[in-house]
Amino acid sequence: MTTADSTRTSERTAPGGPAEPRANDRPGLRTSGDRAAIARARLEKVITHLLILVGVVLSVFPFYWLAVMSTSTTAQIFGYPPRLTFGTSFAENLRNLFSSVDILSALVNTIIVSALCAVLVMFFDSLAAFAFAKYDFPGKNALFVLMIATFLIPGSLSLVPSFILMSKIGWVGTLQALIVPGAANAFGIFLLRQMASSSIPDELVESARIDGAGFFTIYRRIGVPMMRGGLAFLGIFTFITAWNDYVWPLIVLVDPNRQTLQTALQNLNSLYLTDYGMVMAGALVSVLPLIGVFIIGSRHFIANIAAGAIKG
Amino acid sequence: MSVMTTPPPVDAARAPAAAVPRTRARGWRGVLSHWPQYVAIAPFYVLFLVFGLFPIVFSIVLSFTDWDGMGEIRFAGLSQYIYLVQDSRFWNAVANTFIIWFLSTVPMLFLALVIAFLLHQNIRFRGFYRVAFFLPNVTSMVAMAIVFGSVFSDSFGLVNSALTALHVDSVPWLSSSLGIKVTIAVMVIWRFTGYNAIIYLAGLQSIPTDLYDAAKTDGASTWQIFTRVTIPMLRPIILFTVITSTVGGLSLFTEPQVLLGDAGGNGEAGMTIVLYQYNQAFTQFDFGYGSAIAWALFVLASVFAIINWRLLSERRDAPRRTGRKARS
Questions:
Q1: CA–CA gap between residue A36 and residue A22 (Å, rounded)
Q2: A90, A280, A290, B180 from A93: Cα distances, Å
Q3: Which stretches does DSSP call E strand in chain A?
Q4: Average pLDDT of the residues in B100-128
Q5: B123: which residues sit within 8 A by CB, 6+ positions away?
Q6: Which of B98, B82, B104, B107 is nearest to B307 (CA)?
Q7: What is the spatial distance between Cα A129 and Cα B41, in angstroms, rounded to a whole number?
Q8: What is the DSSP letter of B279?
Q9: Residue A120 C-beta-side C-alpha neighbours within 13 Å
Q10: Contact across the interface for B297 and A49, Cβ inside 8 Å
C-alpha cells in the first residue's frame, strides 16, 4: 500500500516540476521524467499483484471455508449472516465423525492403496522407460506406438466389463482391485522415457555394458539415479491421483467396512446430511494429508506438469 | 535382481546400446538376446491385456446383449443401440454434458490465459502464486463438491446469503436447470483454471524474447504483439488444453454425482453422460445398456476431438517438437 501512495505523490509532483526553482535544470527534469516512468511501472506492478491476489483468494477460499465449517456447528454454518471465522466445535465434529463411520480404516486403506500404486508405478514404469530410451530391440517402435495408443482409450469405456472381470476373479470389494490394474501405465513410461533419453548419456550406458554389466544392473546403477527427478514427480502424481480416485472405488468397493476416504466421505455425505459440521470434518480429513504431500513436492510437481504439456 | 544381471560377453557385443546404429541380429536369436528389455516392458503389456484390452473387447460384446450381471446373457442384437438413439434421457445427458462443457471451458481457458499473462510479468512471489493457483487441482473432488454444495445451497448457502445482503433475489442454484449447470461449471472452472494457467505460463516462457524485440522494433502495438506473436506461438499449447478440457469435460462424473446424487438432480438437469452410464449399469444393473452408452460416448468424444483438432490446427505455423531428438 505504501508503494501505491508514494506512486501517486510522485506522479503529482512530476507535472509541477517547472514551478520549482531548479525548473530549467535539464538533468533535474530528466530525473522527474524517469521518476514518473518508474512510478507508472510500479503502479502497473501493484495492479498486477492485486489482480493475481483476487484469483488466489478465489482459489484458496473454498479450503478456508471448509476449515471454517469443520470447526462450526451445523446451526452456525447455516446461520444468517454467515460467520466467516473459525468456530470452536472442531473436537466435537471430529468425535461425531469417528463414531459415525470408520474413517480411520478408510484413511489407512487410502494410504495403503496410494502408496502401493505409487511404488509399483515408479518401479514398472521406470524399468520400461529405461528399456525404451536406451536400448534397441526387435519390435520396439511398434510396441511403443501401441503403448501410446492406449492413451486414447477413455477409462469410462471399461467400467462395466472391468467390474465383471473383478467379480469373476473374486476381487470385488478388495483393495487389490484398486492397485493391480494401474500398477504400470503409459503416461509414466512416456514421461520417464522422455527424461531418460535426454538426460542419460548413451556413452555411460555403453561403457557399463563393455564392463560386463547386464541390463538390470545398468538400470539400477545408472538408470534409477539419473531418472530420480522424474521418478519423484511420477510418485507424487500417482499418489495424488490414487488418493482422489472416485468412480472405480465407488463401483468396486461394495463392502461398507472396506472403503477409501472418497467413498467413505460420500457415504457420510448421503447418510448424515443433517450434521454438516461432522461431514465437513470428514472432508477436511480427506483433503489435508494431500495438501501436505502437494506442498512438499509442489515446486517439482508444477514444473513437470507444465513441461509435460509443452513437450507432449 | 542382481542374480540375473550378468549376461555372457557375447550378448554385450551383439546388442549394443541405442547409440550404435542397428547391428542387431535378426530373427529369434535377436529377440532372445534382448530378453531383459522384454521383461522390463512386459508388466505394462500384461496388465493392459488383462485389465485394458480384454474389458474393451468384452464391452463391445456386452453392448449387443441384455444382461443384469446375474442371469443368462441374452444376445440382443442392435436393440440397445436402437433404444439409445430414441432414449430422451440419454440425449438430455448429452445436451447437459455439452452445455456444462461450454459453460466451463470458455471462461476457464480465458481466465487461465489472463492469469498466465499476469504471472509472466517479472513479479515477486511468483512461486507462491503458482502453488496457490495449482492447489485446487490436486484436491479430492468429493470433498470439494460437498463444500461447493454448501456454498451454493439454495436457502442458506454463502452465495445466496451474499446476494440477499446486496438486496438481490437469491438464485435456486441446486434446484433450477440452469443453476445446476452453472454450479457444476463453476466447480470445473475452480479446479482447472490454475492447471491451465500453469501450462500457458510454461508456453509463454518458451517463446523466445527476440521475437518480441523484433516486433517492438517494427513498431507493433501491444495488442498486435499479442495477436500476431503470442497467440500463434501458443497455438499448439492452446490446442492441448482444449483437447484435455474436452476429454475431461465429456467424462464429468464426480461433481454431479456428489452434488446431486445418482439421479442427476431436479429434472435430471445435472445428469451427465458418464453419470447416466453409471446410473444404468450400477444402479439399474443394465450392463448391456451401460456398455452401449459407453461406446456412444466414445464415438461422440472422438468426433468432437477431431472437430477441435481441425479448427485449431488449421495454421500449423508454429514449429513443434524441435527438441525431441531421441536417438532410439
A1: 17
A2: 5, 8, 21, 29
A3: none
A4: 92
A5: A45, A48, A49, A52
A6: B98
A7: 8
A8: I
A9: 19
A10: no
Distance of CA B114 to the CA centre of its chain: 21
SS3 B91: helix
Backbone φ and ψ of A254, nearest 5°: -85, -15
d(C-alpha B41, C-alpha B49), whole Å: 13
Query: A138–B143: do the CB atoms touch at under 8 Å?
Result: no
Which cell numbers in the block locate residue A158? 471399461
Distance CA B5, CA A214 (A): 5
Query: Nearest CA to A250 among A272, A235, A276, A270?
Result: A270
Q: What are the tens digits of pLDDT across the range A114-172?
A: 999 999 999 999 999 999 999 999 999 999 999 988 877 877 888 999 999 999 999 99
Structure-block grid coordinates of residue B24? 542387431
Give how far A12 is from chain B: nearest CA, Å: 25
CB B143 within 8 A of CB A287: yes
Which candidate, B142, B160, B140, B143, places its Cα nearest to that of B151? B160
Name the residue facing B133 among A55, A158, A165 (closest C-beta).
A55
- Grid coordinates standing for A56? 488466489
- Could you give the dihedral angle defined by the CA atoms of residues A288, A289, A292 and A293, in that order, rounded to the nearest 10 degrees? -140
**Which residue of chain B has the CA closest to A283?**
B143
Scanning every residue of chain B, which has its alpha carbon at the shortest distance from the alpha carbon of A203? B19
Q: How far apart are CA B256 and CA B181, in angstroms?
A: 9
- Biggest alpha carbon–alpha carbon distance for chain B: 85
The answer to whether A253 and A173 are in contact (CB under 8 A) is yes
Beta carbons of B62 and A161 less than 8 Å apart? yes
- Give the type of residue at B185: A
Q: Residue A9's pLDDT band (boundaries 50, 70, 90)?
A: very low
B41 in Cβ contact with A137 (< 8 Å): no
pLDDT in the model for residue A311: 62
Q: How far apart are CA B239 and CA A251, in angstroms?
A: 33
Q: What sign results for the dihedral spanned by CA atoms A167, A170, A173, A174?
A: negative
The interface predicted TM-score of the complex, written ipTM, equals 0.83
Helix (H) or strand (E) holding B66: strand B65-66
B293: nearest CA partner in chain A:
A157
Partner-chain contact A160 B290, CB within 8 Å: yes
Which cell is A19 given? 514551478
For residue B122, list chain A residues with Cβ-Cβ distance below 8 A.
none
* Chain B residues 189-248 within an 8 A CB cutoff of chain A: 190, 193-195, 198-199, 201-203, 206, 237, 240-241, 247
Residues 95-154 of A with CB under 8 A from B: 124-125, 127-128, 130-140, 143, 147, 150, 153-154
B192 contacts: CB under 8 Å, gap ≥ 6? B104, B108, B112, B136, B137, B245, B248
Task: Identify the closest residue of chain A to B240 by CA–CA distance.
Answer: A309
Pairing status of strand B74-75 against strand B65-66: antiparallel
Whole-angstrom distance, CA of residue A254 vs CA of residue A182 = 19
pTM for this entry:
0.84
CB A242, CB A293: distance < 8 Å: no
Find cell 502453488 and name the residue. Answer: B131
Cell representation of residue B225: 504483439
